[in-house]
Amino acid sequence: MVRQLRDALLMDKRRMERETHRANTSFNFFHMKSARIEDQVMLNLKILKTKHVAGILAKKILTMRDAT
């Protein structure tokens, strides 16, 4: 009886350890994925900002050229 209870508790412990390991693996995966998405968003913002500044400069150059 005691042995069966001990074995059952040990099986429960192992099951919970596996579930915890799976949860940690999923958490780490999604954390890494969100960091990549954040990096991509920041890069896209930099690209958009650069394109915006380039557009403003192009308009100024055209305006200056047309004024002469």
UniProtKB/TrEMBL annotation:
Organism: Acer yangbiense
Protein name listed in UniProt: Uncharacterized protein
